[in-house]
Amino acid sequence: MTDSADLLKIYAWNVNGLRACARKGYLDWLHGSDADVVGLQEVRALEEQLTKKVSQPEGWQTHFFPAEFKKGYSGVGLYSRKAFDEVSTTMGEERFDREGRTQIAKLGKLTIANVYFPNGSGTNRDLSRIPYKLDFYDRLREMLQPALERGEPVLVMGDFNTAHQDIDLANPTTNRETSGFRPEERASFQQWLDAGWTDTFRHFCAEPEHYTWWTYRGNCRARNVGWRIDYVLASPGAMEFLMAAEIHPDVMGSDHCPVSVTLHRDVLG
Questions:
Q1: Where is this site: Transition state stabilizer (predicted)?
Q2: 168 is catalytic
Q3: Between the chain's N and C termini, which has fewer beta carbons within 10 Å?
């Protein structure tokens, strides 16, 4: 039996606005959780717009990366019980970096990419952002592929804004032309798996009706009419240490719920 001290628990959660989520109990969840690392997406606030209790909670090291060009948009954040060795926020292209979507953190030998992948819908729901989204997918995968091929443990986690297969949303037939389930988006997600990454939740669970996002309309969450668009992907080097992968639909505070993985702490080296 593995002692809990030997485990490393890592969560990803699109909080749909950290200030709003904080009003709905984010800190109670954080302090009561078994998390060692939490990666947030869609923070939608500058660090100075957050209270100190939220931006620098006792017992946690934090790092935030907001969008440069637009307040209240996008943004990612990391909370860790131990300080990261380094955090990089650049993808090498200004059009991606300005939207505050990526943190690549090192914790010992483990690399954690906390990512808010773009939505393909434009401001008029016109699918105009799909080319940008697919370019983002390709660029990040290319950046991380050398570490995967070297056998390093790497996790890519967050809101991918794509449901991979029919099993990953409640109504696949009526959403095939909707951004998030269009063929080109699903094919781009599949390229990650073809390159050697593992969808950690599906590694353990092949059952339907497990979702991570529900629209606020129509009481969809209570009826579990949702989409699974939040993932933790693991490199082969990380899979050696993977012990569990979970979805946490009972955690409220956002239209998404957290997802998590548990690894043996030896992954840190």
A1: 161
A2: no
A3: N
